[in-house]
Amino acid sequence: MRASIAAEMAGVPSVSIVCSGFEGQAAATGRGHGFDELQLAVTTGHVDAQDREQLIADFENHTVDQIIAGLVGAAAPTGAGSGTDTASSVSGEPSAVEIVAAGDIDEINRVFAERGWSDGLPIIPPTRDRVEAFIAASGHDPWKRLGIAKSSGRDLTVWSVAVNAVMAGCRPEQLPILLAATEILADPHYGMEHSGNTTGADALAILNGPVAEELGFNHGPGALRDGTPANTSVGRWLRLYLRNVGGFTTDEHDKATFGNSFRVVLAEDERALAEIGWPPVSADFGFAAGDDVLTMARFNSGAIIGSVFGSTPAEVLPYLGDGLARISGWDLTHVHGLGHGQYRPLLVLSPILARTLAAGGMSKDDVKQALFDHARIPAWRFEKLIGQWSNLTAGRPRLLDVVAAGELPRAFAESDDPDRLVPIVTEPSKFVIAVAGDPSRTNAYVLSNDGPHGDYTAKLVDRRVASDLVCEVPADG
After folding, report:
1. What backbone torsions phi and psi does residue 166 show, to the nearest 5 degrees?
2. What b/e string do you get for 284-318 counting C-beta neighbours within 10 Å, with b at 16 or more?
């Protein structure tokens, strides 16, 4: 779709070829980038599950005619290329303040579930009074637009943030966190439009700064489990917002094969970090310790590194590195192929493990360097993961050739032995390390991220009262 959009912007007619079942997602992607009615040609079945003969036959019999028709017989798509503003409207939808359902709470929940506006759990009805009260003390203009959801073409507004916040059970004092998350969704670097890709990666929000403790976010036992209202409601809000504003439902734009349940907010243990002298996750993205910051990225697989044994860095680091290597599979195409050095797995250390490493004289950067040395897999396995088992990197490249072409560092080709161990990231700084969880348990958790498909993006949480609705009178003279 990106190629078609670029062609249409240059005035060149295009047709995008998509697999069957992806027509809705393709249309939503075009609309989100300002183009309605981009021409599509649909292939039958999944290309990776067909042999060469079947693929060619299906393409000739079902797809070629669609391509020709799209190129010679279609009207030009409306949108950015024609001056038509499609981002502010999606046909057939109620207005922001329209009453869409009436009745008791059971009836409201039934209607919302039937229309796909809920996540399957009971919601608090977002009445106009509740939404207005949620925003009132913040000073924000309810209709202020924070951006456009490229996945759906819908506006990201303070009002829509509050509507879904009420539904999720959030508190008004959490609005600054929700607005920071919305700014992340609007940021092109994050790539909100990828939130429904087939492998089903889901966003995790990491919270740093005094705001976490002051608003009651859990950073201790069960740090990644639902149950604490703040962590749970904000995490649920994100999933609802992606559904209702981003369009990530199975009917519209979500093509996740399996997907995950919504992830609660991960709050770092700021006191443990200060005690051992390590910077927070937000420091990796340009912020200072003590700043209120929300960082988000999308993650695929996750796994526990349980019962880590050892009282020194030398004893515990090999196990941590092994855990990072174990969760890295097809995601390595974000090292080379789908991305270029963009794979950044997350390691969540319990405070006792972080203290063990710090007591051994290790800074966070030292730990990252050690993980770079320990988190390795055989070269042959790396090559199969990026170019044979997953078939996501064209040409089934050899690491020796990739390094020779200057596309990966020398560490990936220190010999021609297929059993040589190679790193899973391009440099130590690519590892992201958080500290949270039960302070008396020697466990860690690892998550493989989805590279540029929801890339790490961080925003300040601005808790000041906004002046959106304040009339400024110029001083005389």
Report:
1. -60, -45
2. beebebebbbbbbbbbbbbeebeebeeeebeebbe
Task: Report the distance separating Cα 323 and Cα 303, nearest Å.
Answer: 8
Q: Which amino acid is at 71?
A: L
Task: Give me 43's structure tokens.
Answer: 């292939």
Number of C-beta neighbours around residue 53 at 10 A:
8
User: Mind listing the pLDDT tens digit for each residue in 67-109?
Assistant: 888 788 755 555 544 333 333 334 578 888 888 889 999 999 9
Domain spans, the chain? 2-79
CA distance 366 to 351: 17
Rg (CA), the chain: 24
Q: Residue 254 corresponds to which tokens in the numbers above?
A: 């979500």
Q: Tell me if 281 sits within 8 A of 205, measured CB to CB.
A: no
Q: What is the pLDDT of residues 316-358, one digit of tens each?
A: 999 999 999 999 999 999 999 999 999 999 999 999 999 999 9
**Which residues pair with residue 376 across a beta bridge?**
423
Q: Which two tokens stand for residue 318?
A: 């090999």
Cβ neighbours of residue 65 under 8 Å, at least 6 residues apart? none
Classify each residue of 196-229 as buried b or exposed e, where b means 16 or more C-beta atoms within 10 Å of its C-beta: bbbbbbbbbbbbbbebbeebebbbbeebbeeebb
State the average pLDDT over residues 275-292.
98
Q: State the Cα torsion 434-435-437-443 to the nearest 10°.
A: 90
Burial bucket for residue 341 (CB in 10 Å: 0-12, 13-18, 19+): middle
Distance CA 360, CA 320 (A): 16
Cα(70)–Cα(76) distance, integer angstroms: 10
The two structure tokens encoding residue 48? 């990776």
Do residues 247 and 154 lie in contact, with contact meaning Cβ atoms separated by under 8 Å? yes
- Classify each residue of 147-166 as buried b or exposed e, where b means 16 or more C-beta atoms within 10 Å of its C-beta: bbbbbbbbbbbbbbbbbbbb
